[in-house]
Amino acid sequence: xxxxxxIPLIIFLASIFVVGFWSSKFLKRSDSFxxxxxxxxxxxxxxxxxMTMIATYGSASSFIGGPGIAYTQGLGWVxxxxxxxxxxxxxxxxxxxxxxxxxxxxxxxxLVDFLKQRYQSKWVVLFSxxxxxxxxxxxxxAQWVGGARLIESLTGLSYTSALFIFAxxxxxxxxxxxxxxxxxxxxxxxxxxxxxTLIILIGTIIAGGGITNIMQDLVAENPNxxxxxxxxxxxxxxxxxxxxxxxxxxxxxxxQVTVRAMSYKNAKAMHRALITGTIVVGFIMLGMHxxxxxxxxxxxxxEVADSVMPLITLEVxxxxxxxxxxxxxxxxxxxxxxxxxxxxxSTVVKDVYLNYIKPNAADKEVKKITIGTxxxxxxxxxxxxxxxxxxxxxxxxxxxxxxxxAFIWPVIMGLYWQxxxxxxxxxxxxxxxxxxxxxxxxxxxLFGLHTVVFPIVLSFIFFVVVSLLTKPANEAVL
Length: 478
Fold this sequence. Notes:
Blueprint: H1 3-29, H2 33-39, H3 46-57, H4 60-73, H5 75-81, H6 87-94, H7 96-105, H8 111-119, H9 122-155, H10 159-207, H11 211-221, H12 237-247, H13 255-258, H14 267-298, H15 308-316, H16 319-325, H17 327-357, H18 363-384, H19 392-416, H20 422-442, H21 453-469
């Protein structure tokens, strides 16, 4: 056991548990278990809102998978990753005030609540819940694999033991604290992510003999590593620009991100979050992916690319400092997985159980069902993560694309186009999800474009055409 590295991580985990305990007091005092557990009673200020969005979006892909693939592909992947800088800006600009107004008008606690009230359709609700559960299981599995690999690299424990420790830690504070615990721990984790990124980047540049030296080493190995086109020229302009739809604009439709746009306190908080979020996302994405590329001359020949981040940190920093900054990727993973766990749990409890199985369930019963569902979901994801893929970033991006294909137009057009109706929304979701799975399976990167592009175009066409061909929505809900 590398105790100088492990002790700071244990302290970090302990502080997260303290926040969970503190947040559980709000659950006991709150008049509405659902409002507090799933939305923190809509009391998020600007800084916390920005950090919880960033921490939720900055995941195992950003801190483990992203640097891993940047190590393999070179600076071309750094350019690709920078598309994510616009994420926070787009989400709050597109959804922003309008979404929050509708969410309050509809008394929406989840994205599915919003869709239910906007479209007044049982089938829109059920298909939404189905899409969230299916695709977020993939996303959650990717995060749990990332967390387990990080603990495995640091401690030397087996992958299964590491996965067990990670699962217990996350389940504990999500179950006791709910959304408030998740948002507050996200804020701590977001701050740790920023400083961790800076320290690892500086340590890597110094270990590589400076940026000029590192670039010369990369060119000497393969000149393509410093071009925008990737190791083998596979990052074409068409692929790079279409990838931007997946990780930039399309993020508007991710349920784990949209729910945060419901939870801010006022317009001032949202504007502050918009600026803070964009700056911090840009810094973290650039820093983490550069670390992956710069690690290549320092640690050549790493076979499991996902282990680049923990290995380079242990290589270039003293053990005690490595332990502190490796709390950053751990923070990123935990903050994403806790949000996803809470989201799938809310989908099952709020959107399915309370809508269609037992609408008049008492608060006490809802609480029991919620905790039981969250625990059961955690165990199920643990079992799925026992056989991990080689590069977890692909698992995560598959989930991103599926959710975006399902929700992007029902959410955006639901806000900005009054003629859009339940028939158009349902057609858009079915076509989006079905075409995404088919193209992803049988013809990925069709015409050199990312798989998500055609499903998003098709779902838009179906939303508009079917809405125009069918009866307009009831004006009372608009």
